[in-house]
TrEMBL record, chain C:
Keywords: Amino-acid transport, Signal, Transport. Residues 32-370 form the Leucine-binding protein domain. This is Amino acid/amide ABC transporter substrate-binding protein (HAAT family). PROSITE patterns: TAT (PS51318). One of its GO terms (biological process) is amino acid transport.
C-alpha cells in the first residue's frame, strides 16, 4: 500500500510539472497584461505538434536532435505569441475587461483548423527521449525515467523563473507590473515592449510544456481545450500572477488526480473543480494570490451613461419585433427554426448581460443555469410525467435555486476570481448531469422532451418562444432601469460609495445573480422542448463561452447589445457551419476582426457612430482617476 | 480620558449633547498600534478637523468611525447610540454621510442620478424592480444639487466631471440622507486653492444651517485654520493635542511633530 | 422472386402516384435524391475523414451505375461539432430547407440518439452509421432509425467469447468515463460472468475521455494485480495508456482484451509501440482478401491514394445500404423506405449484411484477432470475421430490450 502511495505521489508530481509549465506562462501573462488567454492551451498544443515535426526531422535518436527540436518548438511558439500579441491583442488593451478573452477565443478556433489542416486528423505518438526511454525500479514498481526527469523540470523552471524575476531588470518590471499596472506606465517603461515580451515568454513556456509532452502523450487535436480548463484551475487556485502559487496548485492538482482515481475513479471529472471551488471560497485570491491593487475593476474606460431608448431606437426595436412577429407568415419552416433558436439565445445572452453588464459580474459558467433549466424541464417530463406547460414553469426555478446557492458564494468574489468560481460551479453541475446516469441518463441525455400538441408546429413553438423570450427580455430591461438595476450598477461602479449610501452591494449582486440564473433557466427550458432532448453539452464550457461571446460581441455596456450579439454570433456560426467544414477558422477570424474593429461591441460601436454624427463629443474633461493622487 | 471634557469646554455650544462621541478607540495592525486610545467628540453644527502627519492614524481612525474597519477596542456613539463596528451601510442609515479622499461617485451615472441613488436608498426604495430610477426624487435631488452649485451640470456624467465638481457632487450625495454627522476624508485633496476655500465655506454654511456635525481630516493647514471650530491632532496613533485652531497652533507638541515632518500645506 | 415482387410493387406504387399526383412525381423525378449526412467531422476527424472518403467512393460508384430509382444521389454534409443540439438543428434544417429524403450519420452516441429521437418525432428515416450505443436500437429504438455498425454489446460479446477461453480469473477494467465506456464494461462483465461464473473483477478505472492520467491509471491497475485486463479506451487515451503500460510493465504476463484497438484509426498511431498479443476487435485492412473487400480496397486506394480505415468501410457501407434500401422501396416515400429497410439485405465491404427487422440493427460484423507488430507497424494476426448476426441476444431478449417493438 505504501508503495502505491509513494508511486502515485511521483505520478502526481510528474503531471504537475507539465501543468506548471503551461500554467506559469498563463499566470505571468495575466499578471502583467490582465489578459485571460484562452489560446494558451492552443499554444501548448502547437508546441507539441511543432516538436513532433522538428524532432522527427532532426532525428529523434540523437540527443541533439531531440532536445534541439523541443527547444526550437518552444521558441517558435514564443514567436507565434509575438505575432498574436502584435497583430491582435495590442490593438485592444483599451477595450473593456474580458474583451481580450473574446479575441483569444477567436485565435483558439483559428488554430484548431490550422493545426488540423497542417498535421492532419491522426494522433501523433512522438518518439521517446534519448537516454530517458527506460525505467528505474522505485518502491517495487517500474517508474519511467522520463517521468523522473519531468518531476525535476518543474522545480527547475520555477527556480529559473525566480532568478529571472529577482535578478534581471525585465523580471523586476514584470513583478512591478503584476503588482500595480498603473505604476509601470508611470515609470516610463516601454509598456508595449514589456507586454509583447511577456506574452512571448508566456507563450514559450506553454510551447515548452507541449513539446515536453512528446515522449509522454500522443499529440492530438483535443490537447488544447483539455489543457486550458485544467490550467485555468491551476492558475486560479495558485493565485493569478503568482508563479510559486501556480507550482503549488499544479502539485495539488497533480496529486489529487493521482489519488483521486484510486479513491473516486468515477468522479475525476469534477474533483479538480470541487477543489477550486473550495479554495476560492476559503481563500478568494487563491493560495498565493493577493488582492489586486486599485480595485478589481479593469483598465477599461468608465462605463457610459445608461440612457433610455430615444424615439428612433424605440422605433427600430418595434419594427424588429414586428418583423419577428410577422415572420411566420412569409418565412419558410427552416428560417423559423433558426429564428426560434436565435430568440432563445437572445434571452440566454440577455440573462448573462444582466449580471455582467449592470452587475459587473462576468460569468464563465452561465451555461450551468441554461442547462439546469433544460434539465429541469426534461426531468419534470421524464420523472413527474409533466406536460410542457408545468415543466416550463418548474424549470426556471431549478436554475434560479441553483443561482441562489452558487451565487451566494460567487458574489463574495469579484473580477476573474468570480468568473472562475462560476466556471467551477458550472463544471460541477455539468459533471453531475454527466455522471448521475440514473437520474439524467448521463451523456446520452434525456430524450422525448417534446412540446404539447398546440405548440408542436413550428409556428406554434416559435410564437411560444417569441412571447416568453420577449417578455423576459423586456422584464430584464425594465429592471435595469429600475432602482434595483441602478443599485446594481452603483455597486459595480463604486462599491465603496454604494455601501456609503446604504446599499448592501453583495445582497444586490446576489439577487441579480439569481435573476440571471432564473432567466437563463427559462431559455434553457425552451431550448429543451425545442430540441426535444437534453444533454450535458447544454451546460458544458463551450456553451458558456458562446454566451460570453454573444454579450461581448454585442457590447456589454448596452442593453440591446446582448440581443444583437446573440443574433450576430449564433447566426454567423450557424451559417458558417452550414457553409464550410472549416467553419471554425472562419468563425475565429470573424471574431478577431470584429473585436479589433468594434472594441465596444456592435451596439456600442453603432451608438458611438451615431453620437459622433449628431453632436459634438463631450470635451475630454479630466477623469476622476487622473485628478486623484 | 481627560481629553474629552477639555475639548467640550472649548466648544461654544457646550450645552448640547455631542453628536459623535469617541471613547478610547484602539486598532493594531500586526502588532503596530495604528490608533491607540483616541477619544473625542463633535457637537452639532460645528466642524472638527482631524490632523496629523502621514502615518499618524488619521485614516485608520476615520475608517473605524464610518464602519470600514472594526476597532479592537473602544466605543463610538452617534447621538448616544453605539455604532461601534457596524457596517458602513448601517452607519449611514443611522445618519452619517461621508465623502472620500479619492472621490467616489457612480461614474456611469449623471450627477443627478448619483444624488437620486442616495435619495432612493434613504427612502428604502432600492429593491424595487419597477419604474424608472431616474424619475424618482427629481426635485429633492435638484434641491441638493442647487445647494452645492451643481444644478446646471445635473445631466452630465460623473465620469467626465472636473475634480472639484466631483467633490461637490459627493457633498450633495452625502447630504441626501439628512445626516447628523458628516465625515469628510481629505475633502480638498487635489483641488486648486480657491476651490478649497469655496468648498469648505460651503460645507461650513450647510453644517451651521442644518446643525450637522462635521469631522474632517485635512493636510492643508490654511483650510484647517480657516474652517474648523476645533482641531484634534494625532501622532503615531495617539491624540496629542486638541483645542481651537489657535490653541493647537501654539501647542509645543504639535509644533515638534510638524517641524519634524515639515508638512504644512498642500496635498501629497 | 423478391426482385420480381419488388419491382412489381415499385411499378404499382409509381403508377398509383402518377395518377394521384402527377405534379409530385415530376418534382420528385426531376432532381437527385438527397441524403442529409450529419457527423462530427471537425470534432472527430481521425475517424470521419476516412468515413467521408468511403462514403464518397460508394456514392461515386452508385451514381456511375445510374444512381437509385434512375436518379442521382446527392449528399449534403453537415458538421455537428460534437454537439447533439447542433446535430438536431442540422436535422431540422436538412429536412425543411434542403428537403432531404433521409438522414444519416452520427459518430457520438448522444448525437446518434438525438437525431434518432428527432427522426421519430418527424417521421423520417435515419440511418445511424456509427454511434455504438445500444440504446440507439434497443432502449430508445424507434421505427425510423436503423444502425449499421456492430454495437457496444456486439463488440463486447465478440471479445467475451475469446476472453472466456483464457485461464484468467481476476480482471481489471479500464474504460473512458462516458456511456460507451460504461456500457462496454457493463456488458463485458455481465457476459463474461455468464460464460465463466468464477471470474472476479478486481479493479475498475474510468479516466475522463481524452484526459487519461495514464501513469496513475496504470499504477492503479497494477496495484490490483489482475490476471487480465479489459480495455475500452481508444484514441489518444489508448496511446498514452499503452506507452505508460509498456514502460511500467503492466502488460507483461497478462492477457489484455481490448475493444476497437485493432482498428487502423487507433492501432496505426501507435506505430512500433503497438501492443503485442492483445485480443481485439478491429479491421485488418491489408489482409482481407474476400472479393468484395479487395474490390473496395483497390477502388479506395485508386481514388484516395491511401489505404482504407474502418471509418472508410462504415461510410462506404452506409451509403451502399441506403442505395439498396431505395432500390428495394422503389420510391423515396419515407414510410415505404422505412418498410424497405426492415430486413434489407445489402452489400458491404465485408460481405452481405442485413438490417434486422426485429431491432433495426445491421448484422455487419467485426474482425476479432490478436495484435502484433510487423515492419514497425501494428497489425492484426490470427483474425477471423465475427458475423454480427451471431453476437446478438435472442429475439425474446431483444423484444424486452426494445420497448418500441
Amino acid at each position: 500500500m505504501i508503495d502505491l502511495i509513494l508511486t502515485q505521489t511521483l505520478n502526481g508530481l510528474a503531471s504537475a510539472s507539465s501543468l506548471f509549465l503551461v500554467a506559469s506562462g498563463l499566470s505571468i501573462i495575466f499578471g502583467v497584461t490582465r489578459i485571460v488567454n484562452f489560446a494558451h492551451g492552443s499554444l501548448y498544443m502547437l508546441g507539441a505538434y511543432l516538436a513532433w515535426t522538428l524532432v522527427s526531422s532532426f532525428g529523434a535518436a540523437e540527443p541533439l536532435g531531440f532536445w534541439g527540436g523541443v527547444l526550437l518548438a518552444a521558441l517558435l511558439v514564443g514567436l507565434l505569441g509575438v505575432v498574436i500579441e502584435v497583430l491582435v491583442l495590442r490593438r485592444i488593451y483599451q477595450a473593456p475587461e474580458l474583451f481580450q478573452l473574446l479575441a483569444t477565443f477567436g485565435v483558439v478556433l483559428m488554430l484548431q483548423d490550422l493545426t488540423l489542416a497542417t498535421w492532419g486528423p491522426e494522433d501523433k505518438l512522438g518518439p521517446r527521449a534519448p537516454g530517458l526511454k527506460s525505467f528505474v525500479i522505485l518502491f517495487d514498481n517500474r517508474f519511467p525515467t522520463y517521468e523522473l526527469f519531468l518531476i525535476a523540470v518543474g522545480p527547475l523552471v520555477l527556480l529559473i523563473l525566480w532568478l529571472l524575476f529577482q535578478k534581471t531588470r525585465w523580471g523586476t518590471l514584470v513583478r512591478a507590473a503584476t503588482q500595480d499596472r498603473e505604476m509601470v506606465g508611470a515609470l516610463g517603461v516601454n509598456q508595449r515592449l514589456l507586454f509583447t515580451s511577456v506574452f512571448a515568454f508566456g507563450s514559450m513556456l506553454a510551447g515548452l510544456g507541449g513539446a515536453l509532452q512528446l515522449p509522454r502523450e500522443a499529440v492530438n487535436l483535443h490537447m488544447d481545450l483539455s489543457m486550458i480548463s485544467e490550467v485555468f484551475v491551476v492558475v486560479v487556485v495558485g493565485g493569478l500572477g503568482s508563479v510559486t502559487g501556480a507550482y503549488l496548485a499544479a502539485v495539488l492538482i497533480g496529486i489529487l488526480h493521482a489519488f483521486g482515481i484510486l479513491i473516486f475513479p468515477k468522479i475525476t471529472l469534477v474533483l479538480v473543480f470541487l477543489v477550486m471551488a473550495v479554495v476560492l471560497v476559503v481563500k478568494p485570491y487563491g493560495l498565493m494570490g493577493k488582492a489586486p491593487i486599485g480595485g478589481a475593476r479593469g483598465h477599461g474606460p468608465a462605463e457610459p451613461l445608461l440612457l433610455p431608448a430615444d424615439k428612433l431606437t424605440k422605433l427600430a426595436g418595434l419594427i424588429a419585433l414586428l418583423l419577428l412577429v410577422l415572420a411566420p407568415l412569409v418565412a419558410p419552416d427552416h428560417i423559423l427554426l433558426t429564428l426560434t433558436e436565435l430568440v432563445i439565445f437572445a434571452l440566454f445572452a440577455a440573462s448573462l448581460h444582466f449580471m455582467m453588464g449592470p452587475g459587473g459580474m462576468a460569468s464563465f459558467g452561465h451555461a450551468a443555469y441554461f442547462g439546469l433549466g433544460a434539465y429541469g424541464a426534461a426531468l419534470a417530463v421524464k420523472w413527474l410525467g409533466a406536460s410542457m406547460e408545468p415543466a416550463l414553469i418548474f424549470a426556471p426555478f431549478l436554475a434560479g435555486i441553483a443561482g441562489v446557492v452558487f451565487g451566494w458564494f460567487c458574489v463574495r468574489l469579484s473580477g476573474v476570481y468570480l468568473a472562475m468560481l462560476t466556471l467551477a460551479f458550472a463544471q460541477i453541475a455539468w459533471a453531475t448531469a454527466f455522471q448521475w446516469v440514473e437520474l439524467t441518463g448521463g451523456d446520452n441525455g434525456i430524450l422525448g422532451v417534446w412540446p404539447s400538441a398546440w405548440a408542436v408546429s413550428k409556428t406554434g413553438f416559435y410564437y411560444l418562444t417569441l412571447g416568453v423570450c420577449v417578455f423576459s427580455i423586456l422584464a430584464l430591461r425594465l429592471t435595469i432601469f429600475s432602482p434595483l438595476g441602478y443599485a446594481l450598477r452603483a455597486g459595480r461602479d463604486n462599491p465603496l460609495r454604494a455601501e456609503a449610501i446604504g446599499l448592501d452591494v453583495m445582497r444586490i449582486q446576489w439577487v441579480a445573480f439569481a435573476v440571471a440564473a432564473f432567466a437563463a433557466g427559462i431559455a434553457g427550458a425552451l431550448f429543451a422542448f425545442f430540441k426535444g432532448s437534453v444533454f450535458p453539452t447544454y451546460m458544458a464550457i463551450p456553451r458558456s463561452v458562446d454566451a460570453l461571446l454573444m454579450v461581448l460581441l454585442g457590447g456589454v455596456q448596452t442593453v440591446a447589445g446582448p440581443v444583437i450579439g446573440a443574433f450576430a454570433y449564433a447566426g454567423l456560426s450557424e451559417q458558417l457551419m452550414k457553409a464550410t467544414m472549416y467553419w471554425r477558422f472562419g468563425l475565429g477570424l470573424s471574431i478577431v476582426l470584429l473585436v479589433i474593429l468594434f472594441p465596444r461591441g456592435l451596439v456600442g460601436a453603432s451608438l458611438l457612430l451615431r453620437e459622433r454624427w449628431t453632436r459634438q463629443p463631450e470635451p475630454a474633461a479630466r477623469l476622476a482617476a487622473e485628478g486623484g493622487r | 480620558m481627560n481629553a474629552v471634557p477639555q475639548l467640550q469646554a472649548a466648544v461654544p455650544a457646550a450645552a448640547q449633547d455631542p453628536v459623535l462621541v469617541v471613547r478610547d478607540l484602539q486598532k493594531s495592525f500586526g502588532g503596530v498600534r495604528a490608533v491607540d486610545g483616541v477619544s473625542f467628540s463633535v457637537q452639532a453644527g460645528t466642524m472638527l478637523a482631524l490632523i496629523g502627519p502621514n502615518g499618524a492614524g488619521k485614516t485608520t481612525c476615520f475608517n473605524m468611525l464610518n464602519g470600514q474597519l472594526r476597532p479592537d477596542g473602544g466605543e463610538v456613539l452617534l447621538a448616544g447610540r453605539p455604532i461601534t463596528g457596524m457596517k458602513p451601510r448601517v452607519v449611514w442609515r443611522m445618519g452619517v454621510g461621508r465623502t472620500f479622499q479619492i472621490t467616489a461617485t457612480f461614474t456611469s451615472m449623471t450627477v443627478r442620478e448619483n444624488v437620486q441613488m442616495a435619495l432612493i436608498s434613504h427612502a428604502g426604495g432600492i429593491w424595487s424592480p419597477f419604474g424608472r430610477a431616474r424619475d424618482r426624487h427629481v426635485e429633492a435631488a435638484d434641491a441638493l444639487l442647487a445647494q452645492v452649485g451643481m444644478l446646471e451640470q445635473a445631466e452630465r456624467a460623473c465620469g467626465v466631471l472636473a475634480y472639484g465638481d466631483l467633490k461637490r457632487v459627493e457633498l450633495a450625495v452625502a447630504l441626501a440622507n439628512q445626516p447628523r454627522l458628516l465625515l469628510m476624508d481629505e475633502p480638498t485633496a487635489g483641488m486648486a486653492p480657491r476651490e478649497r476655500i469655496e468648498l469648505m465655506a460651503l460645507t461650513a454654511d450647510i453644517a451651521a444651517a442644518k446643525g450637522i456635525a462635521v469631522l474632517f481630516t485635512e493636510h492643508d493647514m490654511d483650510v484647517v485654520f480657516t474652517h474648523s471650530d476645533s482641531v484634534i491632532v494625532l501622532d503615531r496613533g495617539r491624540l496629542i493635542a486638541h483645542g481651537t485652531a489657535e490653541e493647537v497652533r501654539r501647542d509645543p507638541n504639535v509644533r515638534a511633530v510638524y517641524l519634524g515632518s515639515g508638512a504644512t500645506s498642500g496635498g501629497h | 422472386m423478391t426482385i420480381d415482387r419488388r419491382s412489381l410493387l415499385a411499378g404499382a406504387s409509381a403508377g398509383a402516384a402518377l395518377i394521384a399526383a402527377p405534379a409530385l412525381v415530376r418534382a420528385q423525378g426531376a432532381g437527385p435524391i438527397k441524403v442529409g449526412e450529419i457527423n462530427s467531422y471537425t470534432a472527430q476527424p481521425a475517424f470521419l475523414k476516412p468515413y467521408r472518403q468511403g462514403w464518397e467512393l460508394a456514392l461515386e460508384q452508385i451514381n456511375a451505375a445510374g444512381g437509385a430509382l434512375g436518379r442521382k444521389i446527392e449528399t449534403i454534409f453537415r458538421d455537428d461539432g460534437g454537439k447533439p443540439e447542433d446535430a438536431v438543428r442540422h436535422a431540422g434544417d436538412l429536412i425543411n430547407a434542403e428537403k432531404v429524403d433521409l438522414l444519416s450519420g452520427g459518430f457520438l452516441s448522444n448525437v446518434g440518439l438525438a437525431i434518432a429521437d428527432f427522426a421519430a418525432q418527424n417521421k423520417r428515416l435515419y440511418v445511424a452509421s456509427e454511434p455504438l450505443s445500444d440504446a440507439v436500437v434497443w432502449a430508445k429504438g424507434n421505427r425510423y432509425t436503423f444502425r449499421l455498425r456492430p454495437s457496444t454489446y456486439m463488440q463486447a460479446a465478440m471479445l467475451v467469447e475469446e476472453a472466456a477461453k483464457l485461464p484468467a480469473k481476476k480482471w481489471a477494467l479500464v474504460a473512458p468515463n462516458y456511456e460507451y465506456g460504461q456500457s462496454g464494461v457493463k456488458w463485458f462483465k455481465e457476459l463474461l460472468k455468464k460464460a465463466k461464473p468464477d471470474v472476479e473483477f478486481v479493479a475498475e478505472q474510468f479516466p475522463a475521455l481524452g484526459r487519461i492520467d495514464a501513469g496513475a491509471t496504470v499504477q492503479a491497475l497494477e496495484a490490483s494485480k489482475p490476471d487480465a485486463i479489459f480495455n475500452v479506451t481508444f484514441g489518444a487515451d489508448l496511446s498514452n495508456f499503452v506507452r505508460q503500460g509498456n514502460t511500467r510493465g503492466l502488460f507483461e504476463g497478462r492477457a489484455v482484451v481490448s475493444m476497437l484497438t485493432g482498428e487502423p484509426e487507433y492501432l496505426d498511431p501507435l506505430g512500433a509501440e503497438a501492443p503485442v498479443g492483445w485480443i481485439v476487435t478491429g479491421y485488418p485492412h491489408a489482409d482481407i482478401q474476400t472479393p468484395e473487400h479487395v474490390k473496395f480496397r483497390d477502388a479506395y486506394k485508386a481514388k484516395f491514394n491511401d489505404y482504407p480505415r474502418l471509418g472508410s468501410v462504415v461510410g462506404f457501407d452506409t451509403m451502399n445500404s441506403i442505395a439498396a434500401g431505395l432500390a428495394k422501396a422503389g420510391s423515396t416515400d419515407n414510410e415505404k423506405l422505412v418498410d424497405a429497410m426492415k430486413g434489407l439485405k445489402f452489400p458491404s465491404a465485408f460481405g452481405q449484411a442485413e438490417y434486422r427487422a426485429i431491432d433495426h440493427q445491421s448484422t455487419l460484423g467485426a474482425f476479432v484477432g490478436k495484435t502484433a507488430v510487423k515492419d514497425g507497424k501494428g497489425v492484426m494476426v490470427d483474425w477471423r470475421y465475427a458475423d454480427g448476426a451471431k453476437y446478438l441476444p435472442s429475439d425474446a431478449e431483444v423484444k424486452t430490450l426494445r420497448p418500441a417493438g
